[in-house]
# Entry
Amino acid sequence: MTEDAISNLTHHTSSKDPATSQPSRSPLTNSPSSSAPTNHPTFRSPTQKPSSRPTAKPSNGDTRWYPGTSKCLSDGKAPSWQSNLYASQTTCCINHFNWDYNNCLGIKQQPTYKWYANWIMNRCVQDCDSSEGGSCGGIVGGSYVITHNSAEACCSAHMSYMSISQCKY
# Structure
């Protein structure tokens, strides 16, 4: 190698990474993590008990999803006659509970406080947990339920044969 080539290799600077006289960033710590290297491995004293329960061993059962009575299940207990088995909960819910998809997935429905006809009570009630009291008649179960912005609109649409005061819960 020529002297010029060696000089170029040892003094090479790039326009992207010019040499600087200062570090590009501060050190991550102000002091070393220990005063000196140890001659022996460091370890902590063993604990008296395990810190947490061991994980369960893998299941050998069938963990595919199948339709239950109100949602899809993956408990390995599908009846022998059940032929509707799915690799995912989503696919099972779409195929068997699309009318109550959120419940099938275990997603708690949030109240809208809109009004709907409760045909069992024969009244218009609000879409909210009945434990809240007032006009709350329970959370609407599915998207097939028609809701209204007011009790008056609900009563006019579904129970026009009675007065608003009789219709409104």
